[in-house]
Amino acid sequence: MAAVTASTHPDPDLTPAAARGAPIVIVTDAWRPQINGVVRTLERTASDLTALGHPTEVIGPDRFHTIPCPSYPEIRLAVDAWLRLPRLLDDLPDSAVHIATEGPLGQAARRYCLRRGRPFTTAFHTRFPEYIHARIRLPLRWSYAWMRRFHAPAAATMVTTESMRRDLAACGFDHLRLWSRGVDTELFRPRDKTALSMPRPIFLNVGRVAVEKNIKQFLDLELPGSKVVVGDGPQLAELREAYPEVHFLGAKVGEELARCYAAADVFVFPSRTDTFGLVLLEALASGVPVAALPVNGPLDVIGEAGVGALDEDLATAARKALSVDPTACRTHALRFSWESCARQFLANLQPILEALPDRR
Fold this sequence. Notes:
Layout: H1 16-19, E1 24-27, H2 37-51, E2 56-59, E3 66-69, E4 72-78, H3 81-90, E5 96-99, H4 104-116, E6 120-123, H5 128-136, H6 140-151, E7 157-159, H7 162-170, E8 176-178, E9 202-206, H8 215-219, E10 226-230, H9 236-242, E11 247-250, H10 254-263, E12 266-269, H11 278-285, E13 290-292, H12 298-301, E14 308-310, H13 314-321, H14 326-333, H15 338-355
Parallel strand pairs: 1-2, 1-5, 5-6, 6-7, 7-8, 9-10, 9-12, 10-11, 12-13, 13-14
Antiparallel strand pairs: 3-4
Helix pairs in contact: 2-15, 3-4, 5-6, 11-14
């Protein structure tokens, strides 16, 4: 499968109604101080939408009373969403509503919009059915039935890749629209390799340290050199104790994270459940080839672009990736534009934007 990039979806020609600067509100259960691909995507999208003339406000758990999510205390759940969220949305009557997640805030926003007759869009960022199944073995068909009901009233449900669109359509989801991803190629760029001083080659993984990320498969690989894991999560203490030879560096952000990427020789991505894998783009932009399983996400981002290796034998993929040209990785990543992604998002909201009162 050929890699799908943001640039393969041309910037849409927005109608005057959609381009006139109508405000947008994004409701999300995933927000700061969480560090993950969903939060980074929403932060950048909100910034770019505002730059494109659509003032964008994010309503996240930081505005509510929260409790830690069971088995995942880093995630905070808004316990008073049903009471307080309607008041916040009432104060934004002329905004297009996008519901980013299916948690307490997403559910409260959905109920509000249905009761008030306000159209909304949703996004399928995360394969929650697979995540829940990995933790408590809940049958996937039960979780997907619930997810279908959640997204069914949306004017559009945004998905990251064509393969995700096919998968969800086969599961009975409707109104699916593409919304790709981008990468900050100024922050994530090739640098010197001195940030990580350990035996080479260095095989790196960045992301949440959680069971659904399948990190254990990476840690069990027989590989030369060193393995490095950057990130935090509920499995960190357990894996750190079980694999003392692995370098667990904890969560990194900004320049420190970018230096870690650039210092690696191969980025290893063992996840089978990610809908895209923003970290893949960050590694490629840093000039680091990717080794991954041939599943949705890597198939879409890497495909046959020659910037990594995909194999069910992840150790084989990792060794093959060592011979990939770093310059090709960087060139491929440069094709992904955050602005193009924001324009895709706007195109998906276009029917809602057109129905809003004219602010000119």
